[in-house]
């Protein structure tokens, strides 16, 4: 990885305290544990009542505030606005949008980065709606709500070759 390249992973959270330690660890292991590796994780939490922010703060102490940037919000808002807010704090030259419920598996980070470099894409995200992807174990209400969040997020907008 060239020194001028920096990766920002935007991770929206709401009631994900149990997922954060594993998720942060997997991101850390995929992007590089070295202090010289150039990446950051912007976590935008929508006022989770389950203590997600407190767990994220503990993880921030372990991984450093330079690596883990916490941006809590006062209440639960639309998923699309989480991404917009996360982008405001991203300092990376490349942005990767993931989620905290493991539907975007962290093992795909190297592949996402390779795709980003090949296409010179500013932003890349995983999607469960392409190819053989799907959502398992979600009821119809959650599926419809998530799809609505994607539409508001603007996945149809091209940002220097947005990959979906």
From TrEMBL:
Gene3D superfamilies: Spore Coat Polysaccharide Biosynthesis Protein SpsA, Chain A. Residues 8-143 form the Glycosyltransferase 2-like domain. It is an enzyme of class 2 (transferase). Its EC number is 2.4.1.83. The keyword Transferase applies. Keywords: Glycosyltransferase, Transferase. SUPFAM superfamilies: Nucleotide-diphospho-sugar transferases. The keyword Membrane does not apply. InterPro entries: DPM1-like, Glyco_trans_2-like, Nucleotide-diphossugar_trans. Pfam families: Glycos_transf_2. Belongs to the glycosyltransferase 2 family. This is dolichyl-phosphate beta-D-mannosyltransferase. It comes from Lepraria finkii.
